Amino acid sequence: MTLEAFAEAITLAFGWPTVGWIIGGILLGIFIGALPGLGPSLGMAIMLPLTVPLDGGDAIILLVSVYSGAMYGGAIAAILINAPGTSAAAATTFEGYPMSRNGEAMKALAISATSSSIAGFFTVITLILLSPVLVEMVLAFQSPEYFLIALLGLAMITVIARGSMVKGITAGMFGLMITSIGTSTTTVTPRYAFEDYLGFMLHDGIDFVAVLIGLFAIAEMFKLTGEKGGISRSDTKISGGIVPGIRSTLSHPVTLVKSGYIGMLIGAIPGAGSTVSTFVAYGEAVRASNDPDSFKKGNEVGLIAAESSNNGTIGGSLIPTLSFGIPGSAATAVLLGGLVMHGLNPGPTLFSDELATTYSLFIALLIGNVLILVLGLAFVTRASIITKVDTDYIVPIIIVLALVGAYSLRGGDQIWLDVGTVVALGVIGYYMKKYDYSIIAFVLGVVLGGIAEQNLDRSLQLSDGSWLIFVNPLEQPLSLILVVLIVLLIFGPFLKPYAKGLLDRR
Amino acid sequence: MEHVLLLVFLGTAVFMFVESFTFGDRAAAFPRFTAGATIVGATLLLLRSYLPWPLSKLVQDTEGAFEETTSIDEVDAETPVDEPATDAAELPAIRTDEPNVESEIRYVELGPIWMHGALFIGILTVLFVVVSYLIGMLWTAPLFVAGYLAALRRSWYATVGLALLAFGAAYGFVAVLGIGIDSGALVDLGGLLW
Amino acid sequence: MEKVNRRRFLKHATVATAGVSLAAGCLGDDDDNGADAEADDEFPTDNITIVIPFGEGGGTDDFARTVAAAADDHLDVSIQFENEPGAGGLNGTQDVAQADPDGYTLVAFNPPSTPTAWLVQQPAFEIGELEGVATVGRFPYIIYANTDYEIEDFGDLVDRYDDGEFDQIAGQGVGTMVDVVARALRDDVGLSWGDYIAYDGGGEVTEAVMSDEVSVGIGTDSGALAGAEEGRLEPIACIPDGGSAVFPDLESIAEQGYAEEGDPIDTLAMLQPSYWAPSGTPNEHIDVIAEAFEQATEDEGVQEWADDTGNVVEYSGPDEASQLLADVLETVPEVVDLEAVREEAES
User: Fold this and answer.
1) Within its chain, how far is the Cα of B101 from the centroid?
2) Residues 6+ apart with CB under 8 A from C98
3) What is the 3-state secondary structure (H, E, C) of A83-111?
4) Class for the domain spanning C140-267
5) pLDDT digits (tens, 9 = 90+) for B92-138
6) Do domains C6-139+271-345 and C140-267 have the same CATH topology?
7) Is the distance from CB of B58 to CB of A164 less than 8 angstroms?
8) What pTM did the predictor assign?
9) What is the pLDDT of residue C335?
10) Which residues of C155-175 are buried (b: 16+ CB within 10 A; e: fewer)?
11) What is the mean pLDDT of residues C146-175?
């Protein structure tokens, strides 16, 4: 079954037009990622409606290629003009930009391409090797565990939320609350549907993709227009050599492998996302170094760590997305939207029924990494051009694409509901950004609401209303572990000072 | 304006909380809980300057990131892109005098007034949607792009070129997905362009 | 858009349901309806829009798009799709029911599912007035169990429910077709389950049975294929008579002696993907489209798709489709206590 599916996946991924989608996706991803301020989530959100006519597998391959390309592309602007295209590329700026200023931009870009693609390559291979076990793992998760995993994702809000914890929780709860609009998922009661005025319009709820487009595309465009200096006009010259860059990357295999896996592991934690993983990998590189003082001044090892972890994150973040439908980052949230839109429901089916599709997705990522290496090394010199595109030219085009995309999501009277959602969430998202409310908390709420509600309701149905189903050590040991994790996650920050105090006394 | 945002949260949550009592128990549990939590959170944030300790500690802005990042010197966990739009936010959105050059905010000059860039694009976007509803998004898209670039005093060839690009992109959607953006409430081409 | 107070309508109209739907069914069956509208000599001259009243990528969507995309080749114009999900298919269906009856707007749904949702929810439009265009396939619901229990046949399963070994049964959401089928199995066939555990989609149901969260479940035959191939779940019986193309050896409940051929359960548990037009659409137009669908079902690509996915693609014409709708609207209220479904669905 597995080998068969693998063979089928290879023919799928290398067949036409699938290869075309991979190439197109990677190119588009690099382009979008390299534009300052635009990241993979925005690029994917805009592409999403366009994938409707595609076959499910091709659509996901295209999206994942955009994802992979954009993660790499983000590094280009980070290195050249200190403006990371993605939050995951923020750590790249620490060493990449100083290198550019030292006149080693070409070398830095070569390091970025080499370490991104190598780390991307081996983490995806690891993922392929793990996938037979993943099925068993996923089947061990039942309704109570699904609920708790969703809760764990939500609890991550308290960790990742910027601003105060209450802001993060409020944003997350507001997101969760919005998902209850429309026909109830537990019974078929219509909720907040205003049927007297709107008929069936709201029965299907607020479209999750429209929410994403609003929050990621429109809100960001509003913000860019309201800011001076969002446009980069740096005169950085691209210099240095390609070959020394490759050599430098290859001479630090330990950092490369370690950072790649750190990216993969942390990327796999729901809600943590790629930003955190790159900082952890970078921090680890600093810790392990004999010469920590050389960091932030153009240290190649730091750059390798940051770049290999951010592509390693892709493989990791796919694990919870594909197996539980729980995205680790904004980009995977959009990818999840694509999966669901094309009827590829996350869960064990993706590793049994749809195994070939899943494998072809991984293989597409491998092909993508090879492309990144080739394109990255061959065309990096020209990359500086896109980073100099005036954002004023980008903003109106992105808004047009976002709204036309929203228009095409659903039919009938839901068309203007979706367009309205995009604009409304754009405005709300703009103010949330402005006042430091976590957008990712809000998105997690919107994404996890349905999962949390249904699985909680079903768990209680299965247990005849007993909450013990979540903490029974004999029947549901996994649940108990998850509950403990969640409690630690939420109360950890409060308990830490006391624990530290105890240790110090000893 | 942060209060307006919080009041939007609060108002929606209160409505959803109250309305949930018209549903059966199973359907009501989830919205009631989340709306309740939103109400509590938004209320705490609204009243944050009047809160006694230790409640006030909860709503203080803190550095929220992983422990590891703070151990690295001067690591700023925030990307420049995600930086909030500064405290200059409280400046007027529309003004009649020429804004300070030093200001972080970009103002768009519209005849006698200067408008905050974000407000300008917000209004333009809403106009775009309304006019699209009337005459179809395909025709409105180039107008929107041209209007935006003209207000920002961009060169005429960039304005025309990008307007054409917007039309082309929108037409791409029509060609690929066959969506009806060539028609609006006032214009009905009945899928002539498919 | 018509403004209707559905709740009020629901309160006062429950008793009349069967009567209304019966009358509606007869109307739908009446071909003379179509003669009202003027038939143009040339049809079609414009593109045809098919509304799919479910989300993209679901079973209904797949079936409707695959066959209609092939029908596209046999028409001079192209076919466009619009997904209008919501309310168990009633959202999109209502829009088409109220659209211009010119043959340019159709809706795709699979009786008995959407008509049953209509009976349960009772919205203010008459689904029975829709004109049948074509029925293009069928797939049955089957009952399956986790392999570990080594259930021999349907009789064994009935016994184990009677003994209390099993109490729960898994299926798609409350108030959906699977729920109705499960009730019919309990009330008419004697499968005495106590708790119906609802899941969001067919995939989740098979997953629940594979992981033994619930030991027995109901779902489509093609949905159960992968799990059965992996040996994690075992089909016990095909619920309707007529058999499963996916599991050709699987005996139906009737063949195992627990129902009679032609029982209402046959109508309830066989989904039949079909296309419908608004009431008053000229017969000539319907015939043109129906012909294209007939040719589409014979297309090589479509048949290949059917083989790959385990679906049966089979054409029957406008009259049969209309008859099918009328049958469903008549049978369901007779077999199932709709009031009970409604009560649970609104709880």
Assistant:
1) 25
2) C2, C125, C278
3) CCCCHHHHHHHHHHHHHHHCCCHHHHHHH
4) alpha beta
5) 777 777 766 666 778 888 878 888 889 999 999 999 999 999 999 99
6) yes
7) yes
8) 0.77
9) 83
10) eebbebbeeeebebbbbbbbb
11) 91
Nearest-neighbour CA in chain B from C173: distance (Å): 13
Contact yes or no for A151/A445 (Cβ under 8 A): no
Write out pLDDT tens, residues C233-286.
899 999 998 888 888 899 999 888 888 877 888 888 888 999 999 998 998 889
Smallest Cα distance from A503 to chain B, Å: 18
SS3 A464: coil
Q: What is the CA radius of gyration of chain B?
A: 24
Per residue in C288-330, pLDDT tens? 899 999 998 888 888 887 877 777 888 998 999 999 999 889 9
- B45 near B4, Cβ under 8 Å? no
Task: Select, from the ranges A5-14, B77-86, C152-161, C204-213, the one with the highest average predicted confidence (pLDDT).
Answer: C152-161
Give CA–CA dist C181/C332, Å, rounded.
10
Distance CA C339, CA C347 (A): 12
Return the pLDDT at A93.
Answer: 80
Architecture of domain C6-139+271-345: 3-Layer(aba) Sandwich (3.40)
Q: Is C128 helix (H, G, I), strand (E, B) or coil?
A: helix
pLDDT score, position B79: 37
**Token pair 């050389």: residue:** A294
Report pLDDT digits (tens) over A297-343. Answer: 888 999 999 999 988 888 888 887 887 776 767 788 778 878 877 77
Tell me which H or E stretch contains C234.
Answer: strand C233-238
Is A502 exposed, middle or buried (CB count within 10 Å of its CB: 0-12, 13-18, 19+)? exposed
How far apart are the C-alpha atoms of C209 and C202, rounded to whole Å?
11
The whole-number pLDDT of residue A233 equals 41
Q: What is the pLDDT of residue B68?
A: 29
Has residue C138 got a pLDDT over 80? yes
Asked whether the beta carbons of A78 and A89 are under 8 A apart, the reply is: yes
Q: What is the mean pLDDT of chain B?
A: 78
Q: What is the pLDDT of residue A126?
A: 92
A166 Cβ neighbours under 8 A, 6+ residues apart? B41, B44, B45, B58, B59
Answer whether residue C13 shows pLDDT above 80: no
Residue C300: Cβ within 10 Å count: 8
Domain boundaries, chain C: 6-139+271-345, 140-267
Q: What is the distance in angstroms between the Cα of B95 and the nearest Cα belonging to chain A?
A: 14
A473-482 contact pairs (CB < 8 A, 24+): A476/A142, A476/A144, A476/A145, A478/A140, A478/A141, A478/A145, A479/A144, A479/A145, A479/A148, A482/A145, A482/A148, A482/A149, A482/A151, A482/A152
Q: Cβ–Cβ contacts within 10 Å for residue B168, how many?
A: 11
Size (chain A), residues: 506
Mutate to test the interface with A, among B23, B110, B121 (most CBs of A within 10 A): B121
Closest C-alpha to C180, from C305, C69, C337: C337
Residue in chain B lying closest to C344 (CA)? B24
Residue with tokens 């009649």: B96
**C7, C207, C309, best to mutate vs chain A, most A CBs in 10 Å:** C207
Q: Going by C-beta distance under 8 Å and a sequence separation of 6 or more, which residues neighbour residue C214?
A: A462, C168, C169, C170, C197, C208
CA distance C265 to C189: 9
| Beta carbons within 10 angstroms of residue B143's beta carbon | 17
DSSP character at residue B112: T
Chain B residues inside the 8 Å CB shell of A416: 133
Which of C51, C82, C86 is the closest to A204 by Cβ?
A: C86
Tell if the CB–CB gap between C91 and A203 is shorter than 8 Å. Answer: yes
Closest CB from C86, C195, C198 relative to A203: C86
